[in-house]
Amino acid sequence: MTLKVSKLALLALVSFKMKLARCSVNPIEIVDQHFYDAVTHEPFFIKGVDYQPGGSSGLNGERDPLSDAEVCARDIVLFQRLGINTIRVYSISPDLDHDACMTMMAAAGIYLLLDVNSPMPDQHLNRYEPWTSYNHNYLRHIFKVIEEFGHYNNTLGFFAGNEVINDELSAKEAPAFVRAVVNDMKDYIRAKSPRSIPVGYSAADDLRYRIPLSQYLECSDEDRPNSSIDFYGVNSYQWCGQQTFQTSGYDQLVSAYKEYTKPVFFSEFGCNIISPRSFEEVEALYSEEMINTFSGGLVYEFTQEPNNYGLVKIDNDGNAHLLDDFVVLQSRYSAVESNEFQMIRQNAINPMAAAPLPSCQNEYENLETDATVPRNLAEDLIRGGVDQKRGSFTALHENDLISSYKIHDSHGQLVKGPSKVKIVNEIEVTPEGNSNGNHSEDLDSDSDGSHNDENKEKTKERNNAAPLPARPASVLWIVWVLFIFGRLCDL
Ligand SMILES: *[C@@H]1O[C@H](CO)[C@@H](O)[C@H](O)[C@H]1NC(C)=O
Ligand SMILES: *[C@@H]1O[C@H](CO)[C@@H](O)[C@H](O)[C@H]1NC(C)=O
Ligand SMILES: *[C@@H]1O[C@H](CO)[C@@H](O)[C@H](O)[C@H]1NC(C)=O
After folding, report:
1. Going along 134-283, which residue ranges are E strands?
2. Transmembrane region positions (predicted)?
3. What is the per-residue pLDDT for 442?
4. Architecture of domain 28-408
């Protein structure tokens, strides 16, 4: 009897610890119209936020949303409080180092959806004259982003474009170029990345184009077999305040994408006409009515910017002030973790026969798709690769996981106690992984020199001025934790 009890207790303890920490961060893959954990094969639903502190002007040669480990620690702590599993970032610079932030995100169980474009010159398509921007410099930039982020297991997917088609003229000029970019990215990934990372598109909230464009980007083109997207992101601001599945028009969204052969999700949502936002649409999004068609979504957006969609206000000292929207969304996201919603998710996905990919038509409503796009422009870059440091997980010191910034709750009260990233995945840092980048000495040690030297000097200066806490000399803390959990991982 006592033996039984203690065995049970041991089992409970083990399963508790197993829940606490998994032994690696598993990639997410697509099967038919859903995302799955590639190792456990559990369905994966995106529960996230859009993340670009400072907006597009926050991006420059020295800083982007995933380059500053201290800022990442501050925000990942808040992502975990909010209960999310994914962020979307709109622009990064592949010349900066993202290893620390990506490792921390992986350890925290947070996946990344990344746009490969940026507002900088040569780093996006010109929507009205795409032929002027579809060139080697542009392709080199997007391949560099893939080369760097393709090596992190928690990169969930890449967006080839965001709202490129958003008016009559762009709908006339740009669609065929977007498909070409998708094709080039998929060919690059196939040739150079360690796994098949999905490539998708994020569509503007404009009904004239959203549905025809989804069909055009989905269809199979015998001539260019790799030019079809892997997933479709819908930016939707149609549920404002108190609505229902019907009054919001979500019912029509679901019927529009019911037969879609790829995963669809909200790449942006959260109408702010009525503020603070009540985020009632969250319950609908993860309900039985939507879960088979929509793979979740991302709320626009984490930080407060001039357009007033923020969940968190960051002050001039970098301290965080939670807004009412944060508190409401936190409770909505936590409500969809109830047993009832978990059951819905588990039962949602019927293994239905994979629908065949529709063939491309000659015409799509409101779009012109017959522009002549240069072929084989990417060929040399794909064969030779691009000169770019590959991202890899890095050893972190325990201090790296603690944010030194202050957090104030929505009443302005200081949140007491240390804010520390919770480890949910043990990230094993292999010696190869670490030496691969070899960047702890010099951020730019193996860059291709394509960015100017002045920038380089500045980056170095910044590194010297504010080094991360003595990382190379410190105990490999995560490896140490791995040792502690090692036996449990083996079970
Ligand atoms: C990445 O995922 C693969 C499974 O596809 C796994 O074997 C590996 O350990 C993971 N790497 C890390 C660092 O978690
Ligand atoms: C496209 O994908 C196929 C596999 O589906 C691959 O063999 C081929 O090399 C890719 N590229 C082109 C240009 O077809
Ligand atoms: C890493 O860089 C340092 C100097 O920058 C160099 O001495 C060392 O050999 C490099 N290590 C590897 C494994 O490339």
Report:
1. 155-162, 199-203, 231-236, 264-269
2. none
3. 31
4. Alpha-Beta Barrel (3.20)
